[in-house]
Write a structure and sequence with these properties.
globular, 8% strand, alpha/beta, two-stranded antiparallel sheet, 51% helix, 7 strands, binds thiamine diphosphate, binds magnesium ion, 19 helices
């Protein structure tokens, strides 16, 4: 029995939305082909900053992307510059002991800026510990964003107010939160899109599987955005997964996967922008894998020279997202010296805000250890809390006795 192009298109309409049925009709491909990622990561600007001539004309069927508008490109570049400055500043603050830990996203700023800017105001984003630049680009105050990393007991900002989930450290827990929010939004008839972030290593977690399967079966508007920075701490990708690409994992769940050059801000905006549009139109979930690189150690507690070569780092330096975008915008005469100076000033102001806001110790109340665990504390916690109160009172009495002498 042969299947007509029209009935194949109808099938894809049901399973993958109208973009799929259009591709099936236009290119005579199957819905399974439509779900497969592009053969190479989508790139619109070459590492040296020149526009990639192959993107527009020679694109693979079903993988054509339009160039984002000038204003969008400039706004994103500004966040990229600020993001790089924030990474540098936070790494310095850690060395000064002002912050406990900082998972730097130096080199991954383009991914994070695009993830934040592709969403509309009412949409949600679910970041990981490495995604501080995305959190700030969504409008969360820089000092509040860093609260978690300075060792405070709380996350620093109100997730519901900003529609930004807490930066999760237990890998992929945030993906399930994201799917839950998307499910709720769908049940309420809202057109919210949810973008959930994770790393390459995280795609081996059980929660990753559960989140993707649930999102696909319930046809939810979730974009799973995987930043493949080549390492999970010291474990390189080749030891982590033998899938043809991480984007291919999407197909196993019945959703489309796409891959993009994660150091090309233009391509990221185009690919994620389209993913958001499709998800909002009802195409169900999508997975986007960004190929990028963690330029610095996993955190300040890690020594990356123990498991990777300097030559590898140097190779990626030549693909830097910031210099690439600056050259591209300058060549297109969208960015001049005055514009660059204004952006640099803003980046310096954010860095100053961080230095000032994180320059003082967090006031700590030891009793907070018990305050926010259960709404009704267990008898054991009550007992421990009373013991602590006792101990603190004895300490205070001893201190005042000493100062009276
Ligand atoms: C459930 C769980 N298992 C293990 C860890 C320890 N851990 C912290 S970060 C990390 C590597 C994650 O790598 P990847 O997902 O690639 O993200 P990246 O740090 O590279 O951004 C691991 C194993 C954890 N935080 N949570
Ligand atoms: Mg990684």
């Amino acid at each position: 029995m042969t299947i007509s192009a029209d009935s194949a298109a109808q099938e894809s309409e049901t399973r993958q939305g109208s973009a799929a049925s259009e591709a099936v009709r236009k290119f005579g491909i199957t819905v399974e082909d439509y779900m497969l990622p592009a053969r190479h990561p989508i790139q619109m600007v070459s590492p040296d900053g020149t526009p990639n001539a192959h993107t527009e004309q020679g694109a693979q069927p079903g993988h054509e992307y339009g160039l984002p508008g000038d204003a969008e490109l400039l706004a994103a570049y500004e966040e990229l510059v600020v993001g790089r400055r924030v990474n540098d500043q936070n790494s310095a603050l850690v060395r000064q002991g002002r912050m406990a830990v900082y998972p730097s996203s130096h080199g991954q700023e383009a991914c994070q800026v695009a993830a934040a800017l592709c969403l509309a105001e009412g949409d949600w984003i679910f970041p990981t510990y490495r995604d501080s630049v995305a959190v700030m680009a969504r409008g969360v105050d820089p000092v509040q964003t860093m609260t978690l990393f300075r060792g405070d007991w709380h996350g620093g900002y109100d997730p519901a107010r900003h529609k930004v989930g807490i930066q999760c450290t237990p890998l992929t827990t945030q993906l399930l939160h994201a799917v839950g929010v998307a499910h709720a939004a769908k049940l309420r008839g809202e057109d919210t899109v949810v973008l959930a972030m994770c790393g390459d290593g995280a795609t081996s977690e059980g929660d990753f599987h559960e989140a993707l399967n649930f999102a696909a079966v319930f046809h939810l508007p979730v974009i799973f955005f995987v930043q493949n920075n080549q390492y999970a701490i010291s474990v390189p990708l080749a030891h982590q997964s033998v899938a043809p690409s991480l984007a291919h994992k999407a197909v196993g769940y019945g959703m489309a996967g796409e891959r993009v050059d994660g150091n090309d801000l233009v391509a990221l905006l185009a690919v994620l922008g389209r993913a958001v549009k499709l998800a909002r139109e009802g195409s169900g979930p999508l997975l986007v894998e960004a190929h990028t690189y963690r330029m610095q150690a996993h955190t300040n507690a890690d020594d990356a020279t123990r498991y990777r070569q300097d030559s590898e780092v140097a190779e990626w330096l030549a693909k830097d997202p910031l210099t690439r975008m600056r050259t591209y915008l300058t060549e297109r005469e969208l960015l001049d010296d005055a514009g660059a100076a204004r952006i640099a000033d803003r980046a310096e102001a954010v860095a100053a805000q961080l230095r000032e806001g994180l320059g003082e110790d967090v006031p700590v109340n030891p009793q907070d250890l018990f305050s926010y665990v259960f709404s009704t504390p267990t008898p054991q916690l009550k007992e421990q809390s009373a013991q602590l109160a006792d101990e603190l009172a004895r300490d205070a009495a001893a201190t005042s006795e000493e100062s009276a002498r």
